[in-house]
Structure formats: structure tokens, C-alpha cells
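User: Design a sequence. Structure:
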């Protein structure tokens, strides 16, 4: 399935049901609203802790269904998708970087990336090594993930997320442990890869946002959660 639009219709985490008049729900531009995200648009979802940003990412990716309302890929309600359809969508149309990254601690940085890449056959290993070099961690390729700093782990997880074709990429606090220089380097790589896929970017932040605003010709839409 080619995903051209992601549409939320009056969606709300079930845990917030009954709290519709609470300030964080009342002012949200996502919850209990009709919202359409269109590729190749870039969207920055700005949130405070506890407002459901990771839940939003999980709902769109299909990991969780504990919400009311409806979510659509194009005109297809995602609640109707089969396991087989989800597997195909996650391999070819929808990429994600979860906040917790989910690296295997005993595997090396390169091995963590290659697990994903073998499923998609998207990049050659030489190109993956060039991405590690671009993000200034080529010397960490053969280090176990558990020995890397959190910022280094984030960069490994970002490369892993890019190892597939996608129509949208979802990035949950992707640069929370990166300084401004590394943030901008990562933002440029993500923007370039998304442009090559004619893809949309959905990123969340509770403070340290992905520096898409600093890239020429990239003007993200800011959305308050």
C-alpha cells in the first residue's frame, strides 16, 4: 500500500476518555480533532510529558489500538488491516524510530542495523558504513550497543530506521540526547532520505526538536499535542 495521507478523525487515547475538558486535551490540535498528514509534508508534534505523543506514534504504527475515533491510511481504516497487510506496510511504506530505540544490547551497532536491512534488502553494507561515518560513529560499528552512549545509540537507531523504503517516517524524540551540531547532521540525513522517497516526516518533541527548521527548503508544520 502506498500511503499518501494519514488521517485522524476524533482520535483520543482511551486513558483520556472522560478528561476531554482537561487543559492538555482541550488545547490539543490532534486529540478529538480531524487532522490530515500528507506526504511529502514535514510535521513536528510538540508535546508536554504525559500528553500521549508516544501513544500517537504507536497508534499510527499499529502497535496499539487503545484509542477511540478512527485513523486512516488514505481511505482505509487501519483497524481493518490484517497482520499480513501490516507486515507489508511496515516493510515498504511506514518506518519508525521509537523513543526507547529497542536496540539489542549484546549485538554490535552494525549488527543491529543489519538485522533490519536484511529484511528489506535496502542498502549495501558499504553504504551503511558511510552513514555511520557521516554521523561520526564509524568506530562504533563493531562495538556492542550496550557500550555506546545514549546519543550514539540514537544515531544507530536512526540509521536502522532509514534502512527501508517508506512513505512516512515516524520519529519519537529522535534527538533528545544529541547536541545542536549532531542534531543538524541527523536532520539533514533524515530530510535527504525522505526527499528521495518523496516521503512525509512525523517527529515528536518535548523540548529538543529535530532541527528541520534550520534546513533550507524544509519548513515543518508545528502541531501542538
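Assistant: Done.
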Amino acid at each position: 500500500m502506498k500511503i499518501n495521507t494519514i488521517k485522524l478523525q476524533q482520535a483520543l487515547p482511551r486513558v483520556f476518555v472522560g478528561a476531554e475538558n482537561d487543559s492538555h486535551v482541550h488545547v490539543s490540535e490532534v486529540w478529538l480533532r480531524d487532522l490530515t498528514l500528507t506526504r511529502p509534508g514535514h510535521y513536528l508534534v510538540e508535546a508536554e510529558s504525559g500528553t500521549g505523543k508516544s501513544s500517537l506514534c504507536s497508534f499510527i504504527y499499529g502497535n496499539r489500538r487503545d484509542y477511540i475515533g478512527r485513523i486512516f491510511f488514505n481511505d482505509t481504516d487501519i483497524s481493518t488491516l490484517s497482520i499480513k497487510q501490516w507486515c507489508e506496510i511496515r516493510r515498504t511504506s511506514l518506518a519508525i524510530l521509537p523513543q526507547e530505540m529497542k536496540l539489542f544490547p549484546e549485538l554490535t551497532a552494525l549488527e543491529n542495523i543489519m538485522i533490519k536491512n536484511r529484511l528489506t534488502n535496502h542498502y549495501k553494507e558499504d553504504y551503511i558504513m558511510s552513514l555511520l561515518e557521516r554521523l561520526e560513529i564509524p568506530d562504533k560499528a563493531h562495538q556492542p550497543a550496550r557500550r555506546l552512549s545514549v546519543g550514539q545509540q540514537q544515531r544507530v537507531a536512526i540509521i536502522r530506521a532509514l534502512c527501508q523504503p517508506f512513505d512516512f517516517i515516524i520519529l519519537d524524540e529522535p534527538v533528545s540526547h544529541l547536541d545542536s551540531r549532531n542534531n543538524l547532521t541527523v536532520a539533514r540525513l533524515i530530510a535527504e532520505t525522505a526527499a528521495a522517497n518523496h516521503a512525509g516526516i512525523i517527529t515528536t518533541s518535548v523540548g529538543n526538536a529535530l532541527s528541520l527548521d534550520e534546513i533550507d527548503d524544509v519548513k515543518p508544520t508545528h502541531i501542538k499535542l
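The CA atoms of residues 95 and 169 lie 5 Å apart. Residues 5-224 form a domain with the Rossmann fold fold (CATH 3.40.50.300).
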